[in-house]
Each structure stands twice: as structure tokens, then as C-alpha cells.
């Protein structure tokens, strides 16, 4: 049994990792949906701003 110590070390490492993940609070479905909607709204605002800038550049005929 030459790998006994390595198995023990790996087992300890896995336990430590699992306990670290167990401490994190889970995000509820409603808060997840709210966060996704807020992120989507931010992205829509960014896209609209970019489109407005592109349209402005096209009407003035200039670039950067």
C-alpha cells in the first residue's frame, strides 16, 4: 500500500473544499430571477446607448 498517505491527503483536501462550498449561502430562485432581470436591463441600456452613438455618428458623417 504505497499510496496510503496520498489517499489520506487527498481525502482531507476534498473535505476541506466541500466544507468551504457548504458555507456559501444558496441564492433563492426569486433573488436569482431579480438579479438576472437587473443584469439584462443594464445590458439593454448599454446596447441602446451604443446604437444611439452609432446613429449619431452616421448622421454627422464622422467617426471617432
TrEMBL record:
Residues 1-64 are annotated as: Disordered. It holds the Pfam family SERF-like_N. InterPro entries: SERF-like_N. Residues 1-13, 34-56 have a biased composition (Basic and acidic residues). Residues 1-37 form the Small EDRK-rich factor-like N-terminal domain. This is Small EDRK-rich factor-like N-terminal domain-containing protein. It comes from Lentinula boryana.
